[in-house]
Amino acid sequence: MPALAVCSTIAGAAPSWAHPHVFAEANLEVAVAADGTVESLRHVWRFDDLFSSTVLLEFDANADLELDSAELEKVGAVIHDSLSEFGYFQIVTADGKDVKMQAPDRIMANFEDNQLIILFESKPAEPLALSDSLSFGVYDPTFYTAIDFYEDANLTVPNMPQNCTRTVVRPDPDEAIAQNQQSLTDAFFEDPSSNDLSKIFATRLELNCTAQG
Prior knowledge:
Largest sheet: 6 strands, mixed
Radius of gyration: 18 Å
Shape: globular
Order of helices and strands: HEEHHEEEEEEEEHHE
Number of strands: 11
Number of helices: 5
Number of domains: 1
Strand content: 25-35%
Helix content: 10-25%
Structural class: alpha+beta
Oligomer: single chain
């Protein structure tokens, strides 16, 4: 399997919404700037052993069963390209409206305890104030990759302003489908990546901030 095909599986090369094929444990940090705006989203994803082994075998050019810095750089570059059309699986809204995010400058890859780990940082395209209701999530719209936050503590906001409250929402898939039945057409189940309705299934961090007097 070509290297691009290996990493494009992260981006749903063969969608199967009901049965993810790649699994990753995620951490998300919402970094807040001194002026009270969202500075960036900082992501860390640790992939399952099977997918990690596949990446190791495919990118280990010198066949030493390790990934050196050059090989890891290539892994990061391929994943960066593969995820670009999917917005790097980021789902960000402000008062229910989608927030445009910049593409990360690069994706860093590491291999630790036989697992592939990637790290990247993405900034809002326009200043994003911590006001009213903000939502941050990570989700593969094709359902091929399961990006999971195992603990609520995996979604963090260091130095969160005192006028904000933090809630982690974990939608029940059956309830989400039932509540959105009219919106979920046959086309959605055939190709969920063709629309943005998959966000209803995403685990997300919600921030509600009141105006400061």
